[in-house]
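User:
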Amino acid sequence: MQKARRFYTLFALAAIGIFALPVGIANFIFGYVLGDSPCTLCWGQRQSMIYIGVAVLFILRYGMRPRYLGMLLIMTAFGLWESFYHYGAHALEDIGQGFGVAIFGIHTQFWAEVVFWAVVLVLGVIFFFAPRPEGFAEEFASHGAKWRKLVGAPFLAFWVFFVVVSSNAIQAFVSTGPPPFWGQGDPVRFSFNPKYIIWSSESWDGFKVVQSFFGKRRTISEPDYPLTPASNFSFSQDAAGAPLELTQSLSIAGKKSIEFSTNAPAIDITYANGEYLISTQNHGFYVANSDLSLKDSFLLDPYFSATITDFAGASYVKDGVIRIMGSNKTLIDVKTQKSDDLIKGYANFIKGYDKFSADGWRNRLKTSRSKLNYIQSYANDGKYGYMATIPNGTYTRLFIIKQLNSDKGLEAEYTPELAANVKLKDGRKLDELYITGLAFNAGRLYAVSKAYNLLLVIDTKEQTITEVVGLPKEILNIQGITFVNDLPVVLSYENGKNMLYELR
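Assistant: Predicted structure:
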């Protein structure tokens, strides 16, 4: 029976700890002294801490019963999910950036995560001191009633609860107001002076946004590739219906197909140094001679190290080194010389590791404006790499991404302006374009859109679209573009074949 009493005392001290420290300090010191006003997520996590304490009070009053322990664990799990969700929203901020009051240089959303893990840890430690089940029953029977008598630490735990929770209720009412007001995602400074109190119901708008338990990743559609067409997009090949007025048009001068077998449809082509670099959807890469005969190939392992999703494109970055970019902006540099270290080659390549080798580690490009957009294009001018975002079910804005070759970091990220001779039709947007290929030629960047069969000429110094070129509607499924002898060649996947259209 003595073990049971000691167990309840430890439980009571734990309840006092969670009421007085995170919940009490946040209320009395941060709120009343420093003027910190919790955001809606902070209030949610503070409530979960209180509910955990309430579960402990039930145990102190009515004895150790499975339903109360279950409630305690469920509320702890829910608090962990809340704090992880909150911390995740701020985890990738720059150094020194945070939200609310910082303790030891770390902001409150991280400390909530610490508190809930501490509950799990302390609960485990306390149960090391738990008596056998019959010990709980014997201790409960000694009270001679339907509940345990509260003395010592358990009695104090109830008083701490009433004081701290009452004070939090006062702060919650003053800062958030009665329904339909319910607090702010970005709260104002706390004050008891009515002059400075702002009650808001704007957070209700958050319920109008489609949310997924798995995060934003599940609300963003995958890129439209030949083997996995996007269900929420349809593409017109009529350039006359494009959102931009055409400044000129091109016609088909020649047509041929890639005759050698590839592991999947080709999704990008680059002509350089008398060779074609051909990327396929399922991580296949082929080097072809100028007559389109196969020279070499490899099949990349996408999951070793940083994951590389379906290829977006490839281009030489320096002599003998090709940069291959995935649709998730993750890259690998590959040397074209035969590998003398087959063990290292095996780690990166499923096939062809005796002919190619990786040049350094894989790298993930960190963007700012286009974090939630995939890419389906890549080109390189020798100093910078370029990519264009594609729209998805949620985020549609077109961005040109510029990456410095030397350190692989982000150099610029912009939506191109329109030159004086380029006109956008009334009510139309650049977001309607779907860029699947980029190429650099004679100092200008060329972007080809499979939506409306359009070719944009972009001045990368001025960041403007200088020409809008219509392509023939006979090209059915544009995947990439390159230049051969300064003439554009468009890659299209049609009827199971990789087709090349020479334009003039």
